Protein 1
Amino acid sequence: MARENPGRYSRQELVVGKEGQGRLQKARVAIIGLGALGSVAAELLARAGVGHLTLIDRDIVELSNLQRQLLYAEADIGKPKAEAAHSRLKAINGTVHYGSLVADINHKNIGKILEDEGLVLDCTDNLYARFLINDWAKKRGRPWIYSAAIREQGSVMLLAPGMPCFRCTFREAQGLDTCDTAGISNAISTAIASLQVNEAIRYLTREKRLAKESDSQCLIRLDISSLSLAKIKTKKNPQCPACSGQYEYLGGKKEPRHISYQCSDTYQFFIDNLDLASCEKKWKRLGTVRKGKNYLFFKNLSVFSNGRVLIKAKSLGQANAILSRYAGM
Ligand SMILES: [Zn+2]
């Protein structure tokens, strides 16, 4: 580990103060998803001197990631992102403690994975994961920060105990666009990751003051195509299940992936409310979609109008990644 140098954070201390810097160096932050958002957020937090960073991702580095995922280089292609990120971050700031995990979070493992974390950054590009993190955070009284970016727009929201939660604010949906289906500019992903890190540092260094500020309860939206930034006030939804103690995602009731069999490298899932028309629309932008009366074929995916999805993959993890990438689930 590199030697602590008192000058290392001198410029930052002029902004957050010595006390704030001390709080950062005692903080423990988990980053779930080390793609366009997570790789930038992890690097900024490592450079800022956060005490412990836990790096979680299920994927490997691919050539198409390098346009925006700043922690990786060509030599990392084929390596798990969590491991490639870990070695790069250690080289950037060896005084930070790191943990890395190649894993797909689900309702069974989230409690164990996040048990010791003081703040969680959602960089998952996955709606199910966000509702799951929300349930866990509500139940355990932990803060987390949502982030999302697609094409030229993005959002960030701090969700701390006592504030309106993610489920108060967002509806459940299936088959949303993802970066892989709709595209993403590297300017928006780095801008959104920066805003997310700003929220994290504000929260970690000035927690008590921030908790009293009503203006901290807002959704931040940035659109770089029109250069507009908006702060949208959020409010509690009296019908929100999570706020009334019903943790449907954490309890596994909302698990979107029901595997009924696995053979010859094919994995089967059932997805509620699967919309073939919207799948066809977004996949057409990416390649050839073959269409039947009740089904679509695209790359290694076959989807049926009754919600059945077949994916050719080498492992369940790869099948889950394909489902997330092309179907946003
Ligand atoms: Zn709520």
Note: The chain has a mean pLDDT of 89.
Protein 2
Amino acid sequence: MKTMKKWNWKQWPVSQESTRHQIEQVLHSNRWAITGYWTGQNSMEQQFAEKFADFHQVDYCLPTTNCTSALQLSMEALDIGYGDEVIVPALTWVATVTAVLNVNATPILVDIDPHTYCIDPQKIEHAITDRTKAVIPVHLYSSMANMDDILSIAQKYDLFVIEDCAQSHGAEWDGQKAGTLGDIGCFSMQHGKVITSGEGGALITKRAEIYKRLDRLRADSRARIQKTDLRFGDMEIVPNEVVIQGNNHCLSEFQSAILIDQVNHFEEQNKYRNEQALYVNEQLQKISGICLQTKYPKNKTITIYSYCIKLDRDIIQKTPQEICAALIEKTGLGTFFVHPSYPAVHQNPIFCPWTKKRYPPEIAKTESYWRNLQFEHAERAHEETVVFHHSLFLNDREHIDYFLECLTSILTDAG
Ligand SMILES: Cc1ncc(COP(=O)(O)O)c(C=O)c1O
């Protein structure tokens, strides 16, 4: 086997001259936040919102501090709170579920489909009660949830659908972009995501009445006023037509400027990643004992956030943890790039909602309630799945081949 120089892998995030230019523009603009003053130019935040809305062909986009706040604001805009239940998948990053807890509603976990890793629509109906107000499908790793089935269940039971698109920027279901199928789509722009500003988020919607509430929710109940009314030094975000109690969830001008640049480069990066992933699919299909994440036929345009391989543990006796450790040792790639699938939410050590006072004691759910939940497929995912970061697919073919060589030798016990 060749020895590839360790650390010579593609870094993430990718920045370029255009990124530096964007940041410098903000630096010298005297406007570092939308809560700063009008300087005669549209804020970066507004420019990014317009760009991201256009990208999705929707009328409204609201940038937020992160996806957790986007999810939280979505539920607040839809008047979901104490006494309400929200259906969420049992396999996701914990934030999908803690966002529900943040609005004092009750998350109801539902198992995943073991092939796509996304919420199993057939199990959603069993979880619906008189209190259910919404479903949050998560488009996880590199697959979209079955939006046809989810939307028809939502219509039957009059539920809102909030898509968690933290991992699925640009993916499409039957030609429609992730985030545009439900009532609201929520995105993460945290460091690892395919579009990133280090931390950051955004939500999109087609519905003006929802947007009006969202707009006030993210800047302490204040709203943006028409630019024709503005003079130099004026505030653009003002206590105008207050409709709902807000908090501060504003994205900074630096983050927004970076996101404009990131969106500009996204399509090119995604195309390259997808081509490399097709090659990797072909190579990995030759190894017995592994399965790749399934995509529904309507999810033709995909975005690889995490590339998953599922191990048949009767054939491959190593655990995902052992495979990751060996791969890290051989390639020099750290745990950011190579790791096992998330633990199921109720088994995730960082999921501990009982440590906060949110509900009266008579209805608060205890540690043993959460830890005793059982979801076969969500639990097995952690025991059977190895996950690679999307930036691996931005490497050249020589690096990809070396990665595959290392992986193959570990999986086939030669290494
Ligand atoms: C599926 C999912 N939902 C929500 C989030 C939360 O995003 P953020 O860190 O931007 O709040 C993440 C972040 O990793 C995620 O992967």
Note: Residues 66-68, 92-93, 95-96, 138, 164, 166-167, 188, 190, 201 surround pyridoxal-5'-phosphate (CB under 6 Å).
